[in-house]
Structure formats: C-alpha cells, structure tokens
Amino acid sequence: MARTSIYLNFSGNTEEAFLFYKSVFGGDFGNDGISRFGDMIPDEKTQHMSEAVKRMILHVEIEITGGLILMGTDAPEEMGFSLKQGNNVNINLEPDTKEEAERLFHGLADGGVILQPMQEMFWGAYYGHLQDKFGVYWMVNYAIQSIS
C-alpha cells in the first residue's frame, strides 16, 4: 500500500529522539523495531565501521497522528553523511509500483539535483534521493519482493 512519511536525519541522537516521540505519541516502532548500522551485511564500505557507528540507528519508524509515519536515522560522517540544517528532513514517498516510483522521481528531479539515482538497494527497495528545484529533499522508495 502506498504511503508518505517524513524522514529525519540526526547527528547521533536518533534513538533518544524516537524514544521521546514514542513517549508522546505512544505505539510501537514499526518495521521490526530499531535497526542499527551494525546490523548491515558487511561489505567494503561497512567492514571498517567503528563500534560507535555500529551502535547508531540505521532506521526506525513510528506512526504518529493521522497515520503519518515518522522515520529516522543517524547520519555519521564516517558513512559519508554531511548533516546540516536543511538536509535533515526528507519527504519519503513509497508508491505502489516501480513505474510510479520512476514517474515521481523524475518529475520531482526536473530542475533539481539527483543525489542518488533510482537503483535497487540492499534493503529490498528500488530507491532514489533528490533535491527538487525548490530545495526540498525527497526519497522515493518502492519496496520490491526480491533483488535480482
């Protein structure tokens, strides 16, 4: 089912922030709870990850009012992030089809900057990231059943 969410990037305090949001909104963390960078399948980029980064939050989500999903991650510089005011909030679109994901991504990218082209990702999604011509950050994340 298609949904839209707000994705927040933090500089190391995602867990603290989401425990706070959970205390305010109630409910449980969705999508199998809290995922950490240390849970990632090791590869060339992640095999030299520090223990501190391994403990950081890779992904967490919680439903807040009106069915809106609030998602978050830590953004460690060691993993290539450069967090600053303005790129710490993304609108995350989760369309029902790959074709709709492509349409939304390329429509929003018109006149903007593609930060990561649409491609299959390790978490089982066809994903892309962009900044539109108005400076708004968007993530398009179509969940696929299997990666070839």
Characteristic key phrases:
2 domains, Signal recognition particle alu RNA binding heterodimer, srp9/1, 2,3-Dihydroxybiphenyl 1,2-Dioxygenase, domain 1, 148 residues, eight-stranded mixed β-sheet, 3 helices, single chain, alpha+beta, 20% helix
Question: What would you say this structure looks like, in words?
Answer:
This protein has 148 residues and is α+β, with helices and mostly antiparallel strands. It has two domains: 1-75, Roll (2,3-Dihydroxybiphenyl 1,2-Dioxygenase, domain 1), CATH 3.10.180.10; 101-148, Signal recognition particle alu RNA binding heterodimer, srp9/1 (2-Layer Sandwich), CATH 3.30.720.110. The protein has three helices and eight strands; from the N terminus they run E-H-E-H-E-E-E-H-E-E-E. Strands 2-3-4-1-5-8-7-6 form an eight-stranded mixed β-sheet.
Q: Would you kindly provide a brief summary of this structure?
A:
This protein has 148 residues and is of the alpha+beta class.
Give the helices and strands, then pairings.
Layout: E1 3-10, H1 14-25, E2 35-36, H2 51-55, E3 57-63, E4 69-74, E5 89-94, H3 98-109, E6 113-121, E7 125-131, E8 137-143
